[in-house]
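subagent[fold] <- orchestrator: predict structure for attached chain, return tokens only, no commentary.
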Amino acid sequence: MVKARLKSATSATARAALAAVVTAVLAGAGVATAAGGSQPPAGHHRAGSEPRNLDQLKAQVNAYYNGYQDPSGHHHIGPDSRWAADVTARIAQAKSRTG
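subagent[fold] -> orchestrator:
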């Protein structure tokens, strides 16, 4: 009985997590979900009600991290990426607040 409860709880947890991920992805694409609608990101243009192309989203993520893959297959974030600049700025803000 405990095993059945654990299995159903895990399944419910997994379903809830999957639903949250799908909602976030759809919200990022400007698609309304049962929990409510969302607006597309600033600067985003799309024709009609067609969702954004997944390849375009992947390209945006890759451009933000300016990542590369080494010969052993490990992915790395580029040192001159927008992400690195954002992290550096946040660290500087935190250091200035703690004085």
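orchestrator: received. Logging for downstream: The chain has two domains: 1-34, 52-99. The two ends are 56 Å apart (CA to CA).
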